[in-house]
């Protein structure tokens, strides 16, 4: 064998990477087994329990449970609150991400910190904050009662609490994406005479559309599944202020297991749909980043 045809030794760096990625068969089997066991115990088994409990008495009883006025009210309220919170967070998230990624200004670090605040505050505490602000004995409670405005134990309070809990999702998805894209295209559009709004709608928004959809998807899933903050501000009024997660707890505590699991199955289906859409959007996002590079 000539020197030209002899296999070349890998450089030390590549050899170290290859060694790190090649584990003994027993180690690979152990790691994969632990991962599969974890997924089975914490994801697949709970889903199996939910759907088997929902269908324990047949599809007829399942559909009848979902057709109950209380369940229908909870579904409508959940969809309404999710639509309100997602709409508000979409507008706020895009504006906040645009400001943080494209401009330099005093208070930028503070704004980023405030966006991350719901991640560090318990949802129960955030709900309690709204009660202390807008409740009957709260700071603004007497004024609101005098003007016949009810926020706590009503739809506005539920929407406010849900919006607070979910507002980081859109902004936090868009900020790194917009920072990675830079400002060259916007500067080129402005230099050609485009206005700020025209630049945003024709240049910025098309570049971040998949990130916007991804953030909206996560925000919507979190809004529909929120329990802690909503539980504090809702008042648990039957047929009026109970969202789907609250109704699941109430029905389960009343030993109405089929009805409880039926409503829970809708939330589980939402989680599964979110997972599928999330995977698809992640592919688009990665393709968009690769295109930018």
Mean pLDDT: 87
Total count of strands: 0
Considering DSSP H and I runs of 4 or more, what fraction of the residues is helical?
A: over 70%
Strand content: under 5%
Structural class: mainly alpha
H/E topology pattern: HHHHHHHHHHHHHH
Span between termini: 42 Å
The profile of the biggest β sheet is: none
- Poorly predicted segments: none
Total helices: the number is 14
Description of the molecule:
It contains 14 helices and no strands. The chain is mainly alpha-helical. Helix 2 packs across helix 14 and helix 3 (59-67) packs across helix 14 (257-292).
Element layout with pairings:
Layout: H1 12-21, H2 25-54, H3 59-67, H4 69-102, H5 108-120, H6 123-134, H7 141-146, H8 155-166, H9 168-181, H10 184-191, H11 196-225, H12 228-234, H13 244-253, H14 257-292
Could you give a short description of this structure?
The protein is 79% helix and 0% strand. The protein has 293 residues and is mainly alpha-helical. It starts with 11 loop residues before the first helix and ends with a helix.
């Amino acid at each position: 064998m000539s020197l030209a045809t002899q296999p070349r030794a890998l450089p030390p760096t590549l050899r170290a990477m290859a060694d790190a990625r090649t584990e003994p068969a027993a180690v690979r089997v152990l790691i994969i087994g632990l991962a599969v066991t974890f997924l089975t115990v914490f994801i697949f088994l709970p889903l199996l329990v939910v759907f088997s409990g929902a269908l324990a008495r047949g599809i007829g009883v399942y559909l009848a449970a979902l057709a109950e006025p209380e369940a229908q009210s909870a579904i409508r309220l959940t969809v309404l609150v999710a639509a309100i919170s997602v709409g508000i967070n979409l507008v706020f998230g895009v504006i906040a991400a645009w400001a943080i990624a494209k401009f330099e200004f005093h208070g930028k670090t503070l704004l980023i910190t405030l966006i991350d605040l719901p991640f560090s505050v318990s949802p129960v505490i955030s709900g309690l904050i709204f009660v202390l602000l807008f409740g009957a004995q709260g700071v603004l409670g007497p004024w609101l009662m005098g003007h016949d405005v009810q926020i706590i134990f009503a739809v506005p309070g539920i929407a406010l609490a849900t919006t607070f809990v979910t507002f980081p999702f859109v902004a936090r998805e868009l900020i790194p994406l917009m920072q990675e894209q830079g400002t060259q295209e916007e500067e080129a559009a402005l230099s050609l005479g485009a206005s700020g709004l025209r630049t945003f709608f024709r240049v910025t928004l098309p570049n971040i559309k998949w990130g916007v959809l991804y953030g909206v998807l996560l925000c919507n899933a979190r809004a529909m599944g929120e329990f802690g903050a909503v539980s504090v501000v809702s008042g648990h009024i039957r047929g009026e202020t109970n969202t789907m997660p609250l109704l699941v707890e109430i029905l389960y505590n009343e030993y109405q297991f089929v009805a409880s699991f039926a409503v829970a199955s809708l939330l589980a289906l939402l989680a599964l749909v979110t997972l599928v859409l999330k995977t698809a959007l992640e592919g688009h996002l990665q393709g968009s980043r690769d295109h930018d590079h």
